[in-house]
Amino acid sequence: ILDFGFDRLGADQSQINHPVLITECACNPVQSRSKMAELLFESYGVPSVAFGVDAAFSYKYNQQLGICSNDGLAICSGFNTSHVIPFLNGEPVYDACCRTNVGGYHVTDYLKQLLSLKYPHHMSKLTWEKVEDLKMEHCYIAPDYAAEVRLFQKGDKKAEEKTRCWQLPWTPSPMEEAPSEEEIARKAALKEKQGQRLREMAEAKRSNRINDLENEIRDLEMLLQRLRHATENDIPLILAKTVYISKHDVESALAKATQSLRKAKGEPVESVEKMDPSSTEKYNLINVPDEMLTPEQLKQKRKQLFIKSTSEARQLKKQKQVEEELERERQRKLEEERRLENPERYLEELHAKHRDLSEKVEQRKKLKTNGGHTNGNHNASGGVGRGERLNPSQRERMRLLTTAAFDRGKGEDTFGAKDEDWQLYKLMSKDNDDDDDDKPDPDEAELARISSRLQEIDPTFIFKSESGSSSAEPPRFRPLTKEDFQIILGVERFRCPEILFNPNLIGIDQAGLDEMAGISIRRLPSKGQGLEEKITSSILLIGGSCLFPGMSERLEAGIRMTRPCGTPIKIYEASDPILDAWRGASTYAAAMQFPQQTFSRMDYYEKGEDWLRSYELRASIDETVDTIAAALHI
Amino acid sequence: MEPEVVEAELVLPTHMKFKKIQMYEKYPKGQARVRWKHLKQIIQAENYQNYPPDVPNYVNIESPPSMRPCKRICDVTGYEAPYFDPRTKLRYANAEVFKVIRSLPNDYVQRYLALRNAAVVLR
């Protein structure tokens, strides 16, 4: 910062040849002072330095402007801290000054946190600078927090007026227009063409396959013929050239090839007919009683039994499915008829069913999440513990556990010694899982079915999603509207600056601004009734954070609470709260007596850093000689 | 930011004539940047106990805890909150807010508590 300042001021010599006046906070630690002095002297070569409290400069400046008098109170709320400093005879009384570690930074931070918690999906827009702008533009201090909040709670019209709405830039998602006639026709034509192409490809493949098969069959037939004509001895020779092992193989291959050819050509496959005679063949062994068969045949018989039972089971299942389909069709037809004859009543019934089911599902979900929560939180309270066990599956689980633990008894726990003991857990968790998974499913499926029906029929029905998602996720099934991109500042407008008066809201255990004024006056070393009145009748507000509208009324009300009845309280605002300190400092430095107030480099080298501890700037510079002597009081 | 600040170029020349020790000499590339001392360290180094207590110093002038009764407001909405949720330790104003609180995921709860400086800090 110093570099920047000096550079912009046009310093271009080898060192800065001007004395420097630096503002600091009240009762600055010596370390900071010494570091700053060291920096200035060593790095910049400044001849002399002076430190002064910014609030004092501001007060002096305003005093010169005639805003406040010689005795008064300065309430300075800055960025990180807020100070209250009383002034007596123009001098700040540091013994009685008071500091709270709450400032504009905390207000902005509070606002930022609140907004990001309320609107998590806009977190990227809520930068620090933006929030600070928001704070400066929209925040105000309510004269009475409780009353304001009650207005908002009741939803009063005044509250509506006070709510401000920040619209973020937002582009509406492009709506899908209903495809026009030409669109539909074009799409249909495309589909047709694609279908055509696929069909052609299939055709080509099929004809290829048929050709191959035919070739294969011809070869096989030729081979067979040769085999037939050949003698016994030649058969192995001929066969060795081909893949087949014996004549039987060749014949079976031929049969298979002809069959597939027939299938490819689209003739009814004879396999179905073949199944029946082959089935009788296959199962021929079953009917033969056991004693008459050889062991090999027994094995075959067992195989055949197995095959038969499985195929029968499959057939039964198929039948059942067909029946169910028919049943469902029938029901649907019935419903349709019912709907057509009395649409309203049907709709009502459907709505009622939907409502019941949704309630049931919600309740079960609540039970589940409640159980989950208590499981996770190790809650020791008895009432909640009981709620955990109410679920019948959980009860079963507890019963199993306690019986298992009890069985072993007699002081020794030998639960895990035998392997069978662990089967207990299999029982338990199965129960739990079954309960959790099976029960909701049919209900939820039913719910989904009903809601889809309702959506089809009733244009005004809005399906409320049962996802139970936290407030963090907006429901995704409807397109994002304009409202989603609005950030509404209602209560936050006056909730955030409230922390200046009530740091408890943030967790900082200190007094607020109005209380601080009382504390500061209390700490004054010299008391006197008239003095306090004089002080309270000239209270100056300085610092950036006092620019909130409504600050002075609130302060006045607050200070009146702590002071005896009837004291005059006048609160003045500085002419320029932010820059007044600098203006005051500049007028101070321009005065003739300024050089005596500084300490020079020689002093610094001789006396060292510790001397800085007792260095204090005298705020008011008079022309008299005494003050010059008493200027640097050590 | 004030418009003047934004318009001004914020880039400084590297060599300042008036500085005896330039920035690049102090911090050659690759070395650690300067570490500022924290406020706590500064205060500790001050040894304020050694000095008489009536002389004002940085620690002396801090304001004491507030005498007024604590104002209880709802953590979520900011309304007046007479109720307190034992499970999440949040304050709430009415039943709808309670529903919202119970449906919050855990890190949101911690963040609301952190606003009030009441979060559980695990180090």
From TrEMBL, chain A:
Listed GO CC annotations: nucleus
InterPro entries assigned: Actin, ATPase_NBD
Coiled-coil region: 203-267
UniProt feature, compositional bias: Low complexity: 369-379
Pfam families given in the database record: Actin
Location within or outside the cell: Nucleus
Keyword Coiled coil: yes
Keyword Protease tagged: no
Keywords on record: Coiled coil, Nucleus
Biased composition (Basic and acidic residues): 320-339
Region of interest called Disordered, as start-end residue ranges on this chain: 313-339, 356-391
GO biological process, one term: actin filament-based process
Family from the record: Belongs to the actin family. ARP5 subfamily.
Protein name (Swiss-Prot/TrEMBL): Actin-related protein 5
UniProtKB/TrEMBL annotation, chain B:
GO BP: epigenetic regulation of gene expression; positive regulation of gene expression; regulation of ethylene-activated signaling pathway
SMART domains for the chain: YL1_C (SM00993)
Subcellular location: Nucleus
Record key words, sorted: Nucleus, Transcription, Transcription regulation
Pfam families membership: YL1_C
GO terms under cellular component: cytoplasm; Ino80 complex
Span of domain Vps72/YL1 C-terminal: 72-101
InterPro entries cross-referenced by the UniProt entry: INO80C/Ies6 (IPR029525), Vps72/YL1_C (IPR013272)
Name the record gives this protein: Chromatin-remodeling complex subunit ies6
Organism of provenance: Sesamum indicum (Oriental sesame)
